[in-house]
Amino acid sequence: MNEKIKPLVGLQRVPLHEHIPLDTPFSVYIFPTNHCNFRCNYCSHSLSLPQFKEQYGFAPETMSMDIYKASIDQLTEFPGRVKTISLTGQGEPLVNPELPQMVAYAKERNAANRIEFMSNGALLTEERSAALVDAGLDCIRISLQGLSTEKYKKVCGSNVDFERFVEQITWLYRHKKQCEVFVKIMDIALEKGEDEKFYKMFTPIADRVYIEQCRPVYSGVASTEGISTKADRYGHEHTHRTVCPLCFFMLGIFPNGDVYPCETIYRPELLGNVKNDRLTDMWNSDKMHEFQMQQLTEGKNANPRCALCCAPDDVSQPEDVLDNYSHEILERLSEKWN
What we know:
Elements: E1 27-30, H1 49-56, H2 65-75, E2 82-86, H3 99-108, E3 112-119, H4 126-135, E4 139-144, H5 149-156, H6 162-174, E5 180-186, H7 195-202, E6 208-212, E7 250-253, E8 258-260, E9 272-273, H8 279-283, H9 286-297, H10 311-314, H11 326-337
Parallel strand pairs: 1-2, 1-7, 2-3, 3-4, 4-5, 5-6
Antiparallel strand pairs: 7-8, 8-9
Helix pairs in contact: 3-4, 9-11
């Protein structure tokens, strides 16, 4: 069992500071939708729609296939191949009924080494699971909100038949073919003493399982205010990080085609839109360069939206940390841009 207890992040990482600047992003997050069928009490979707828009400056929407195909087509224009396309955004990907077709198109275009997405899994059916597997999905990361119907109602306000839900995950695992099935849960969604129950229940029906520690990811969400970020969500304690590494290896594409230098909800710098601009141009743009330089010289808090974000202290892996390498990276970036 222990060999399956691993964080759901990619584990085959390289020291990021040795590879900057990248000619091709390692990861691209494409948001099939910003709508969600849950209202988890630790998430931005616990806010009402007006509160959500007021707090984050946009309303949830769903991506069209035209915008999606434009995004995928443009990713193939990079000199290298993207390592991972994650069809994950600030919502539930399965809300978009065209998700299997999205997976299939990305595989058809050979747009990345790996196609995956994060999901609460509640909308999975045998038909949907089969369609995703047949489309070529490489990995699904399922995020649980409890270990009972009652707990789901308390955490996310939804009526979930938990026994039936587990049956759907079991069916997916037994018919997964090439698709890896990862299952995780936040510590705050477990009752005291349920850690072992979680592992015993899901280790037999998943390739990897993990319990994450909740962090204050979303501003304006009262239930997570005051939670410490001295450790990341995987429990690793570390000193506070001032340089956000995300913009050096990823892009985030929102449902309307807007492109940002990360996939966070705060959208710190608009780089362009796939309807009018090319992803390769945005990746190599003055805006991206200036944003990266600001991270290295002034730190993430110099950008008011980045200042709200705890991503460097929450999800950044040790191989991604750049704080001790700012000077040498600045020299390399200056050589590239001058």
